[in-house]
Specification:
This protein is an alpha+beta fold. It is built from four helices and nine strands; from the N terminus they run βββαβαβαββββα. It has a seven-stranded mixed β-sheet with strand order 2-1-5-4-3-8-9, with helices on one face. β1 and β2 form a beta hairpin. α1 packs parallel to α4. The two termini are 26 Å apart.
Length: 157
């Protein structure tokens, strides 16, 4: 599990164009890595649309956004197309990134236990360190909170 101040785990992910990407590929930029459970579900869709709508503001702050879920590239492609998403989505089908960040957890629904993604967001500074962590995210207001944190980080350098 990573915490604020830790170096960002350099875990390879599959981008939608089939190439492998990792947080190290974004060096020199601030980076939002947000983990979400599943494409095209209500909370995940609202979150992705929210980040897409605010992308120009994040871009102005030189802050890139990457949404990460266990869905494969094909599912991501359909999800992006269906909702006109403008953010980068990356596949973590092996759950290596989710495990490295401590977001692959045991969950419970209706008394049934299962493994799944804890909706979490990580703000990474230009030096590749975790600057801020949000775990067990509730979608309403979250994108705005992350944007404010990115703005504050911009004031500090």
């Amino acid at each position: 599990m990573v915490n604020e101040g830790d170096p960002v785990p350099d875990v390879k992910l599959e981008a939608m164009d089939g190439r492998a990407i990792s947080p190290a590929d974004f060096g020199g930029n601030k980076l939002i890595l947000y983990f979400y459970p599943k494409d095209d579900t209500s909370g995940c869709t609202k979150e992705a649309i929210g980040f897409s709508e605010k992308k120009p503001e994040f871009d102005a702050l030189q802050t890139l956004i990457v949404g990460i879920s266990p869905d494969d590239e094909r599912q991501h492609d359909k999800f992006k197309e269906k909702y006109g998403l403008t953010i980068t989505l990356a596949a973590d089908t092996e759950k290596a990134a989710a495990e490295a960040y401590g977001v692959w957890i045991e969950k419970s629904m209706y008394g049934r236990k299962y493994m799944g993604v804890d909706r979490s967001t990580f703000l990474v500074d230009r030096n590749g360190a975790i600057a801020k962590v949000w775990r067990n995210v509730k979608v309403p207001g979250h994108v705005e909170e992350v944007l404010e944190a990115a703005k504050e980080m911009g004031k500090r350098g």
